[in-house]
């Protein structure tokens, strides 16, 4: 069913909100807990469709995972060599992270496996992980030049490699490191720009021998992983929608509680501040090895900027939200060096350019970004292309439009942000389910 929303401005956003757990960390927590020895407890786990798909995959691989309470998982790890051959294909749903990391982890197993995904995931490039994994000796076959499904042949010997990745991608780095757990010797990945480092941090917490610094990581093969409890912080990428909404809706004063503040994720904060946003970061504290802070956002006059290239990887998931803010800022915002946006859950440059144009904003698309002329957005119809972040960014922008914004195809918001409508409404959004046509 093509679920939709009707969204429009209501008034200032106020109060305090707490967004769900981090998607990247939730995926990795299930994966590492599954191949560790002993029982790990995960708290703050994201109950999103992407991470639920990853948990289901490990259940198919013979791992017992209990859910004693919402956002809690108890994972009975089977050890590095304890996974069992699945009886059916492994469905990663909409999750690029799930599929790419699993490709690395499954490449070193004794059994064969097949990874499949939904329509959007089936269009996303997997050659970027299949190629380095092949250099390690893995046998992975995709379709049509590297698209899912991925057929992984088990029982091969993997060897450590020193891989200079051509793309700044935490998913590529992580796939190679996870395969490196099963490889002989040391596996090293260097990346053209530093990306999120959750895999290497968590591997260390589970007892693997890893070394890392911004831009690279190494792991020694065949470690003994020991069960560890993981506390997942709130997802900065989910908080981002509220940061932008409260910045653009006049009179807003909103606090987002206990947000994960890993510096490889918070590029948007810097970009927003450069644009004039008023965001106060409360004292940084540590939760489960990650920095977290409360963020207080008040509406402020905003202006366009050239988004600094160096910020791009640290805000790669936040461009839909940034486009929404740029649409209401005075003057021009330029985004460059963000060609990776074209291979996300949708082509996010094209999807957001179309959304902004539908609401009366001028956008010039570039192969690696866009030029957005800020203005006064009006109501209209927006297509989210089944992309959760396009749907949420459009709902945010609607809080500052004159007129109603009709947003189609929003069901995938549940992949990363279950409860978004309820939380946004409580903060002051006007956001209602639209009846599907017919
Ligand atoms: C992720 C890495 C990023 C990001 C994605 C999650 C991860 O992708 O866009 O939402 O958990 O490693 P790339 O590493 O491919 O840029």
Automatic annotation (TrEMBL):
Residues 10-422 form the Enolpyruvate transferase domain. The active site is at residue 317. 3-phosphoshikimate binds at residues 23-24, 28, 169, 171, 317, 344. It comes from the Bacteria. Its EC number is 2.5.1.19. It is an enzyme of class 2 (transferase). It catalyses: 3-phosphoshikimate + phosphoenolpyruvate = 5-O-(1-carboxyvinyl)-3-phosphoshikimate + phosphate. Phosphoenolpyruvate binds at residues 23, 96, 124, 171, 348, 389. Pfam families: EPSP_synthase. Monomer. Belongs to the EPSP synthase family. This is 3-phosphoshikimate 1-carboxyvinyltransferase. It comes from Cognatilysobacter lacus. The lineage of its organism: Bacteria, Pseudomonadati, Pseudomonadota, Gammaproteobacteria, Lysobacterales.
């Amino acid at each position: 069913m093509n679920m939709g929303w009707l969204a429009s401005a209501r008034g200032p956003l106020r109060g305090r909100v707490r967004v769900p757990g981090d998607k990247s960390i939730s995926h990795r927590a299930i994966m590492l807990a599954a191949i560790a020895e002993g029982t790990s407890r995960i708290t703050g786990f994201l109950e999103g469709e992407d991470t639920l798909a990853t948990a289901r995959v490990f259940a198919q691989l013979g791992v017992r995972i209990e859910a004693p309470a919402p956002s809690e998982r108890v994972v009975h790890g089977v050890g590095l060599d304890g996974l069992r051959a699945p009886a059916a294909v492994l469905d990663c749903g909409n999750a690029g992270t799930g599929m790419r990391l699993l490709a690395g982890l499954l490449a070193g197993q004794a059994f064969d496996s097949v990874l499949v995904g939904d329509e959007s995931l089936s269009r996303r490039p997997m050659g970027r992980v299949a190629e380095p994994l092949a250099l390690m000796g893995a046998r992975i076959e995709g379709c049509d030049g590297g698209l899912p499904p991925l057929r992984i042949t088990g029982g091969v010997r993997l060897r450590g490699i020193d891989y200079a990745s051509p793309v700044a991608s935490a998913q590529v780095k992580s796939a190679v490191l996870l395969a490196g757990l099963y490889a002989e010797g040391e596996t090293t990945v260097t990346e053209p720009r530093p990306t999120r480092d959750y895999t290497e941090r968590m591997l260390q917490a589970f007892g693997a021998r890893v070394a890392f610094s911004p831009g690279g990581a190494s792991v020694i093969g065949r470690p003994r992983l020991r069960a560890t409890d993981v506390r997942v912080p709130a997802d900065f990428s989910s908080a981002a929608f509220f940061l932008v909404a409260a910045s653009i809706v006049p009179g807003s004063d909103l606090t987002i509680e206990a947000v994960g503040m890993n510096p490889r994720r918070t590029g948007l904060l810097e970009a927003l501040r450069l644009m004039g946003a008023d965001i106060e970061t409360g004292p940084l504290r540590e939760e489960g090895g990650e920095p977290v802070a409360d963020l207080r956002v008040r509406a402020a006059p905003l202006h366009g900027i050239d988004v600094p290239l160096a910020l791009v990887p640290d805000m790669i998931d936040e461009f839909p939200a940034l486009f929404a803010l740029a649409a209401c800022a005075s003057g021009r915002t330029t985004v460059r060096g963000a060609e990776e946006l074209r291979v996300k859950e949708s082509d996010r440059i094209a999807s957001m350019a179309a959304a902004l144009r539908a609401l009366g904003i001028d956008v010039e698309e570039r192969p690696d970004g866009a030029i957005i002329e800020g203005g006064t957005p009006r109501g209209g119809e927006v297509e989210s292309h089944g992309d959760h972040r396009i749907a949420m960014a459009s709902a945010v922008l609607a809080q500052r439009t004159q007129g109603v914004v009709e947003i189609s195809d929003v069901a995938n918001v549940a992949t990363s942000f279950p409860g978004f409508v309820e939380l946004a409404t409580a903060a002051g959004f006007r956001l209602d389910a639209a009846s599907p046509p017919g």
